[in-house]
Amino acid sequence: MPPWPPCLQPTLSTARRATAFSFSRSRRSRLSSSSSIPASVCASPGDHTHQQQRDNEEQSLVVVGGGAAGVYASIRAKTLAPHLNVVVVEKGRFLSKVKVSGGGRCNVTNGHHLEPMGLSRNYPRGNKELRGSFFTAHGPQDTMRWFTDHGVELKTEDDGRVFPVTDNSASVVDCLLNEARRLGVSLQAGKAVPSVSVTQHGKFVLKVEKRTADLVDYLNANYVLVATGSSQQGYSIAAQLGHSIISPVPSLFTFKVADKRLADLAGVTFPVVKAKLKLDGVQKSAPELTQTGPMLVTHWGLSGPIVLRLSAWGARELHQCNYQGKLMVDFVPDIHIEDMRRILFHYKDQHAISLGTMESKKQPNLFFAGEVLNVDGVTGGFNFQNAWTGGYIAGTSIGTLALTSN
Ligand SMILES: Cc1cc2nc3c(=O)[nH]c(=O)nc-3n(C[C@H](O)[C@H](O)[C@H](O)COP(=O)(O)OP(=O)(O)OC[C@H]3O[C@@H](n4cnc5c(N)ncnc54)[C@H](O)[C@@H]3O)c2cc1C
């Protein structure tokens, strides 16, 4: 335990009393978002008759977005249905987030939360929905097995985070891209899909723009998977195809605290504190807005696992309060009571997409996977696990449909 500064030193009478800090958001690191439902869309793309004739001959899947979810899904679909023509269109570089993730090491998944119920508790957005069959279909153990079977040896660190033994994300990136190429998936980088429409026959027409040249092309597809991460274009495609969007708000950020009492503590880590978010005008007093765990004092305020967790669980409420509020910090928490605490979830159901198949309930043969959905996890490999699981389920559904419709 670090030395206490005079003003924060606990005495017998103050040890259980929380210290209050006013804070604001220090920086944005992620967006949480959602594609929920209504309306249906049917747009005629114009003259694509010749392409429709080709559709009769071969089944095709176009994946929009070559991140973790999109590439994993393309591999799964092509493995199940080798005759399926699979194209992944990526506007930048394939798997660029995987490359930079985990400080360049790629925290692939989490090895301490293997059963679906416990695992789902690590998702501030999506925990209720993910409690069901989602992770049963493809959980962390399946992910680890998949990578190991494909030549990426993994290790689990003490805190549960799983990394390649090489400590280099390139092992994961190379494995996925080599497997996709080996199976015959067409990987098209440097091309963006700004819009998707649906023909009267229920086929998709995707507009594809090549970024470096003034070139527009159209792709026809029987199946479309939107795996665009937190990109605005992905939400716009979802909206074009009849889904309404919950505007994204930042998540996983640290707190800026201008409080003289913290001035001499920059760099000090408190291994276990209990911190509670108090936000003006927010009625909600959810148990998730109180967190226990390590906290780090930085030169601008507070950081560390509990602060990131609070920013994730309170993402919408913090946004409502313009990122101003109070943080009550108990530096000597009653750990026993905390351990006994049962977490209750209060999330509104938004069943726009069937999590059993990842298919839209509004538009047949349209699928979503990964961060484009209103799912985000705390740090520790949970976000990639959402991408692998969603990609796997979508790929399985599309591959199975392609097999049965032949
Ligand atoms: C710095 C950083 C480090 C991270 N580290 C970890 C970690 O170690 N472990 C973990 O679990 N999570 C980590 N995350 C979170 C994780 O990266 C994401 O949850 C995950 O990448 C989501 O995968 P995805 O496939 O849904 O989206 P993305 O990985 O964002 O992929 C979406 C892709 O779609 C492309 N795209 C978007 N719109 C279009 C369009 N219109 N046309 C064509 N292409 C399009 C984008 O260019 C992008 O490549 C990290 C995030 C960041 C920012």
TrEMBL record:
Residues 60-396 form the RsdA/BaiN/AoA(So)-like Rossmann fold-like domain. Residues 47-56 have a biased composition (Basic and acidic residues). It comes from the Eukaryota. Residues 249-346 form the RsdA/BaiN/AoA(So)-like insert domain. Residues 23-56 are annotated as: Disordered. NCBIfam families: aminoacetone oxidase family FAD-binding enzyme. This is FAD-dependent oxidoreductase 2 FAD binding domain-containing protein. It comes from Setaria viridis (Green bristlegrass).
